[in-house]
Amino acid sequence: MKQKSLNDAEIEKRLRGMFERNYQRLRLESGHALTPEIKEAALQQVLYYWKKLRDLANTITDTEVRLHLPNQLSKGERKFGIEGVVDIVREEGNTTMYDLKTHAPEYVRQNIGEYEEQLNVYAHIWKKLRGQELGQMAVITTQLPDPLIAAARSNNLDAIKSAMDLWEPVIPIAYDPGHVEETVAKFGDVVDAIENHKFSPPQLRALKKVEIKRETFATRVCRNCDIRYSCDPFRSLLKEMGTRGRRGPAKFILESLTEEEVEDRFEASLGGEGAITT
Fold first, then answer.
1. Is the C-alpha dihedral spanning 270, 274, 275, 278 positive or negative?
2. Residue-wise over 106-143: b if at least 16 C-beta within 10 A, else e?
3. Per residue in 24-48, is it b (16+ CB within 10 Å) or e — as a string?
4. How confident is the model at residue 263 (pLDDT cuts 50, 70, 90)?
């Protein structure tokens, strides 16, 4: 029996239900809750993302495909492997590989080389190790553009439509197999550095540098780092912000914490020991 296709309202209802169930599961697992405003913003990001890319989403044939490049050897003669997860679209004899990123489209376009290196390794695994054809590659950026966020906040339907039309979250990546060996070697260098206990976090000024729009290295990278409260530059950033920790960059760094946890983290980061220093 052919399954009945869902209309937009039914799909949105299902997305809201899946979002809520996933949020409650993560909240129970982590012990952290989001403020109502941040939770609603996250939900709206999911809904706008779906509205923009529904046609592409409907063509995805293989989701979360795991790619693995095993038995690599670093310069320090350490074995390592490279692993990634992508989505695949097979359509009319053509195969396209997509890699989802939470980064801003502007950042990806300005630093396209970083993504070309990674996607070309994935393409190498797909083409050479799996022996399958690949037509195109692309990065899908999930961060909403500022004009769309502003339009959504004002509930201006015309501005929302205009911002949606201008939004281009899918960024094509060129395939160049000549970069694969160099990229794999870079991964090996990282493995050697970790094994040799050479950890060099960026200096404080690098954490505060605005990389794209109003986003700093701290808001783009540090907030996703599990050991940031043991990092000397990050601790210095918190100390410098002081009571301003509820606003500005700290809002994005600490947004998933409760008020009590914010106070605990500030106290620990400003007076504790065991920081990673530069």
1. positive
2. bbbeeeeeebbbbbbbbbbbbbeeeeeebeebbbbbbb
3. eeeeeeeeebbeeeeeebeeebbeb
4. low
SS (H, E, C) 162-198: HHHHHCCCEEEECCCHHHHHHHHHHHHHHHHHHHCCC
Residue listed under structure tokens 């983290």: 265
Instruction: State the pTM of this model.
Output: 0.76
Read off the tokens for 119: 């996607």
- Share above pLDDT 70 across residues of the chain, in percent, rounded to a whole number: 84
139 and 23 co-located in one domain:
no
* pLDDT band at residue 100 under the 50/70/90 scheme: very high
* Per-residue pLDDT at 146: 85
**30 and 92 co-located in one domain:** no
pLDDT in tens, 187-217: 999 999 999 988 788 899 998 888 776 778 8
Tell me the backbone φ, ψ of residue 255, rounded to 5 degrees: -60, -25
Range of the domain at 54: 9-58
Determine the Cα–Cα distance for residues 100 and 85; give it in Å rounded to an integer: 9
Collect all residues with Cβ–Cβ distance below 8 Å to 57 and sequence separation of at least 6: 50
Same domain? 109 vs 186:
yes
